[in-house]
Design brief:
512 residues, alpha/beta, 9 strands, globular
């Protein structure tokens, strides 16, 4: 799955993804069209949506779909149709369709399912999507919906249960999809898990895509598939690589999530299973060409089974994609990058997990960092040195290896700049001269890395992309790696120009 809905990337990159799928025997690519951040296709039938600046023309994505078919890869369009619909309600022409409930803290959005204009709008959009993408399927999204606050919805809820309105709405969307010759797919978080009363009321023709990015027990995933099958429906498994738990890299337990879905949905000839799609979210979280190894691991798990992926997945990637000879250094490098991948704190994580941090870029963030004086280790220093040695063995896709190495350099710098300021904050005596040297060193390294990250972005993404240049609607700081590091580099440069201010922040952090 590619998330053009959040951050459109170049057509050349999407062609590379298609080529990768073909080379690794993956026969489908889910193409997310729209989300709260904007719409990535400029629909001629509805010109007043909230569009990404670099939204594609319909003929461009039709050409991309045809290219996919020529390589044996079916592009499945996903157009959010209930939640994640800011691309509709952020546009002034359709703001009246917003159906947020009375919980203003909710991060999710929704359209009014009982408003007559809503289905009329999707009738237009589905017809145009079906003309652009020749796929058998149309994914309507419908996950993480915030609805029920509008006058129309409140009135409807007086006579019907929420699950009844949900089911009626999904059936109506499915009817539109069927009228344009498509099999309709919806996400399974609500219909399968949160409000299972919906499942038994929706058309059996609706395909349920079951996503769960933390589950590593294939038996539990199999239970969900069994529920779908008993209902007379069909399912698609949806593990993830990069998702809300991760920043620039996914961790070892994410590989276990991929394995668990592969076992449950592909481990038997179950007529209720249509297969598995690897989801991959928010391109601005990671360096574009740095995660091909994760795609390859999933491809081996899907096509050849999890025991093969666990034993040989990364070896096959190194030998095929880099045309390098597998050895103990490669094995250690992949073990380190997955075992040490920083993750979001506050979720069920391993005791020794590396927490996911955003690089400090304000006085307040620096002061907060300095409150914790515990020693900091940097798990990426050893990995960085390994990659320096391994680079000379790479004989194919060298630019991809450099992107992989850049992701490691970013992580090493992220944790080094934390460790060095903590180290100097407890140094006795702390002098202004020492503080000035430290902040100049940080600023120089930040500047070099920020330039490298920007150059890398510009090679496969739009140089003036909003996700690179400013905070994006609905995004957390962790979701914008390049933008946040640019801020960090600008901040350290400002401190280097005024080292007395940096010295003051360090001095103020010392216990009385």
């Amino acid at each position: 799955m590619v998330d053009a809905a959040r951050v459109p990337e170049s057509l050349e990159y999407y062609r590379r993804v298609i080529d990768f799928c073909a080379d690794w025997e993956l026969n489908a690519l889910q193409f997310r069209i729209a989300d709260d951040q904007g719409c990535a296709i400029r629909f001629s039938s509805v010109p007043d949506l909230f569009y990404h600046e670099h939204a594609f023309a319909p003929e461009q994505l039709n050409d991309l779909s045809q290219y996919g078919l020529s390589r044996g890869v079916e592009l499945i369009p996903e157009l959010e149709s209930f939640g994640h619909t800011g691309y509709i309600t952020r546009a002034s022409a359709f703001a009246h369709l917003l159906d947020a409930d009375s919980q203003p803290s909710s991060e999710f959005t929704g359209v009014i399912p009982v408003h007559p204009e809503t289905l009329a709008l999707f009738n237009k959009l589905y017809r145009e999507v079906s003309a652009i993408f020749p796929s058998r399927f149309l994914h309507g999204g419908c996950d993480e919906v915030n609805w029920g606050g509008s006058a129309l919805s409140r009135k409807a809820l007086q006579t019907k249960h929420r699950y009844e309105i949900w089911a009626d709405y999904l059936n109506s969307l499915n009817h539109i999809a069927e009228n344009v010759g498509k099999q309709f797919i919806v996400w399974g978080d609500v219909v399968l898990h949160k409000e299972p009363e919906i499942l038994e009321r929706i058309s059996k023709n609706i395909v349920v895509m079951d996503w769960n990015y933390t589950e590593t027990n294939s038996a539990k995933i199999q239970q969900a598939l069994s529920t779908i099958r008993r209902n007379g429906s069909r399912g698609i498994g949806a593990p993830a690589l990069i998702n809300y738990r991760w920043g620039s890299r996914a961790g070892t337990d994410q590989l276990a999530n991929i394995d668990a879905f592969a076992t449950a949905y592909l481990g038997s000839e179950d007529a209720g299973s249509l297969g598995v799609i690897l989801t991959n979210w928010v391109p601005s979280r990671y360096i574009q060409n740095s995660i091909w190894d994760g795609f390859a691991y999933a491809a081996v798990a899907f096509r050849q089974g999890t025991s093969t992926s666990q034993k040989f997945g990364f070896r096959r990637f190194v030998e095929k994609h880099y045309q390098a000879e597998w050895n103990n250094d490669w094995e250690e490098a992949f073990r380190l990058i997955y075992d040490s991948a920083p993750r979001v704190e506050g979720r069920a994580t391993a005791a020794r997990a590396v927490p996911l941090h955003v690089p400090w870029s304000t006085d307040e963030q620096l002061a907060t960092l300095l409150k914790d004086r515990s020693p900091r280790s940097n798990p990426f220093t050893r990995l960085h040195s390994l990659l320096v040695q391994l680079e000379r063995q790479v004989s194919k896709n060298h630019a991809d290896f450099q992107a992989f190495a850049l992701s490691v350099a970013y992580l090493e710098q992220l944790y080094w700049r934390e460790a060095i300021v903590v180290e100097h904050s407890i140094k006795k005596p702390l002098t202004q001269e020492d503080a000035a040297l430290v902040i100049r060193n940080i600023a120089e390294r930040d500047h070099t890395l920020a330039e490298a990250l920007a150059r890398d972005w510009d090679q496969g993404r739009f140089a003036d992309s909003a996700a690179k240049l400013k905070p994006l609607f609905g995004f957390e700081p962790k979701d914008q790696l390049v933008f946040q590091f640019e801020r960090a580099a600008a901040y350290s440069a400002s401190l280097a120009l005024h080292p007395d201010r940096f010295f003051g922040i360090l001095a103020a952090s010392k216990p009385a």
